[in-house]
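Severity: low
Component: inverse-folding endpoint
Summary: output formatting inconsistent between runs
Steps to reproduce: submit the following structure tokens with default settings.
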């Protein structure tokens, strides 16, 4: 795989995340939602109607700058269209500037707003003008098996035909890709090598007979994004880290050994049944010597607490809806 081009600057706007937090202090290169809205002239009176809604899910608008040129990618679209549209409107998203869309994996909390996002983009750029990158494994019916044995069935991901009808140019492949002229690297399937990152216990998928269920703890359709920021290194976006954030970051390092790891952002799925992996995950994160860590979405408060003690305020900058990261 050819290396992604080095970008001069990275601007990351959180469109959807589980939490809202405009009161906590942040590093100098992280702008909280209210500060950004007020200084940007988008909020003149602080009110509930003027700020974003938190919702269980994730959506990031990532803009890479190369000289005077900008390339923008939408990474996931949150759990539903209404939340995505509301927050994008409040934050002033220019849908005409989006060059590509990536769906990280086949879960409703990342794909529920995808059709609304594609409709907004295609209305500005034209139908079929923006590629939407997906993996064939994303479209199986999924569920979570409860302790009682009952299945909590997930909302399905819109299938490729529906994505095309909504205006996307669908790129449906297992293979890694360079996206938006080489500014973004989209991984292939992530090898599972650590002993303690075992996926998501209780996660199921519909079997080939269309009736029964089979275990699907590894979610092999999940992929990550990496951007090479000049003079800094790889910044990695992992939407849920069902593969395990250590597997993700080590794979990024193996893919491009000449580009050091700089930072990581996204859900790290260290909550619920995966909380037992927190100590070893944090210990291995420390060995990677990251300069910025922005966990959010499904990371969980217990993992956040351990990370806060381990990394301190300058390295750790948790994600929240409306935040902007300037890297």
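Observed output (run 2 of 3):
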């Amino acid at each position: 795989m050819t290396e992604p081009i080095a970008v001069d600057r990275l601007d990351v706007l959180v469109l959807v995340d589980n939490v809202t937090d405009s009161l906590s202090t942040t590093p100098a290169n992280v702008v909280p939602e209210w500060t950004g809205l007020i200084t940007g002239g988008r909020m003149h009176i602080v009110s509930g109607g003027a700020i974003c809604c938190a919702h269980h899910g994730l959506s990031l608008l990532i803009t890479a700058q190369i000289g005077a040129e900008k390339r923008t990618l939408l990474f996931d679209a949150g759990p539903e269209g209404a939340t995505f549209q509301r927050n994008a409107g409040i934050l002033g998203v220019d849908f005409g500037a989006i060059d590509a869309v990536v769906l990280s994996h086949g879960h409703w909390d990342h794909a529920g707003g995808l059709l609304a996002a594609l409709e907004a983009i295609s209305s500005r750029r034209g139908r079929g003008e923006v590629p939407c990158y997906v993996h064939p494994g994303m479209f199986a019916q999924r569920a979570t098996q409860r302790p009682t044995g009952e299945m909590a069935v997930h909302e399905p991901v819109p299938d490729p035909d529906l994505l095309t009808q909504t205006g996307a140019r669908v790129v449906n492949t297992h293979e890694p890709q360079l996206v938006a002229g080489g500014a973004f690297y989209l991984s292939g399937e992530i090898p599972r090598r650590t002993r303690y990152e075992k996926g998501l216990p209780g996660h199921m998928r519909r079997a080939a007979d269309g009736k029964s269920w089979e275990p699907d703890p590894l979610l092999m359709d999940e992929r990550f994004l990496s951007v090479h920021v000049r003079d800094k290194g790889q910044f990695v976006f992992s939407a849920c880290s069902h593969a395990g954030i250590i597997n993700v970051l080590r794979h990024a390092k193996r893919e491009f050994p000449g580009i050091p790891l700089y930072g990581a952002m996204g859900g790290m799925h260290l909550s619920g049944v995966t909380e037992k992996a927190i100590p070893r995950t944090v210990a291995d994160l420390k060995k990677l010597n990251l300069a910025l860590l922005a966990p959010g979405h499904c990371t969980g408060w217990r993992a956040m607490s351990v990370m806060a003690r381990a990394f301190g305020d300058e390295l750790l900058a948790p994600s929240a809806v409306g935040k902007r990261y300037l890297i």
